Amino acid sequence: MQFAPRIKEESNMLKVVERFSRAMDLPILVGEDCKYIPVIAAFRCMPSEDIDNWLVADGKPRSDRDLAAEILLEVKGVPSADGILPGRHYSVLEVLELGRAAALVMSMFLAELPRTAQAQKS
User: Fold this and answer.
1) Which end of the chain has the smaller Cβ count within 10 Å, N or C?
2) Is 80 exposed, middle or buried, given 0-12, 13-18 or 19+ CB atoms closer than 10 A?
């Protein structure tokens, strides 16, 4: 399942932000309980040569939450099996409230990005 591309304005021209989506289970607060919810997460693509400088800015490592907030574009719950109930959209900030979720988002992003970048070159 892919999300519709997010569009941003750049130099008076519209440009589509490259993105990829992956299914994953994320811990999300439901009321006062933390539950692992199956979701589809949409990530911003990043050239592999930029990753090291992005992870460690000015010689200081950045937190998973800060990094995840920059690359996580959208989180949508998986629709019901019968397709009648659509998946709920979750706020990125809501999802990143839990440090575990931010760590999982970053882990998925870093694990999947090189394959995505290679596939786009082909």
Assistant:
1) C
2) exposed
